[in-house]
Input
Amino acid sequence: MPPKSNAKTMILEACVDSLAQSIRAEAQGAERLELCASLDIGGVTPSFSLIEEIIEKVKIPVKVMVRPRGGDFVYSNEEFDDMLRTIKILRNIGVKEIVTGILNEDREVDLDRMQRISNLAVGMDITFHKAIDDTKVPFKELEQLKKIKNIKSILTSGAANSATAGINNLRRMITLSGDRFSIIVAGKVTQDNIARLHKEIGATEYHGRLIVGDLG
Output
């Protein structure tokens, strides 16, 4: 059985990469946006001009991806410095939540760097993204992430190729999180399968490019 939730509503988070998609997603019922660029490679940091335009044009919350490139989540010192500079700018232009994640060479969460990000992102919430699905033991890493105050949510498909394949792990992650994190279920979550997934998983937040239908 899915874990019981105290939440009153189910939040649908649409993943978007343009102003047109953002406006469409809001009109089609999304409660929140995750804004990225280059979704074909899993999403990277979008341009600051696009971020400002979307924040101005939509009424729902906008989370912004902080990721300097596609590929793995082990970053050089130069790439990490770029992430820190990005976060400073995002904070200054009014972004309230970022989506990011850093691993070390051992495929564990890089707690030192994530703590530095948390210290910098004052007044912002952090979602640790699907980098957790690339770790050796996601359940262990979830426990480690509890040490970092500003991390409020974890975006995951349960270390599987899709939310459907990761149902059992997702249930376990929700149970382990308790009230500390919101587990945002991702991985081929669409308007067509959201009802079934919600019945099976019992999460309070779901994420996908097609979660409120085709955005064009």
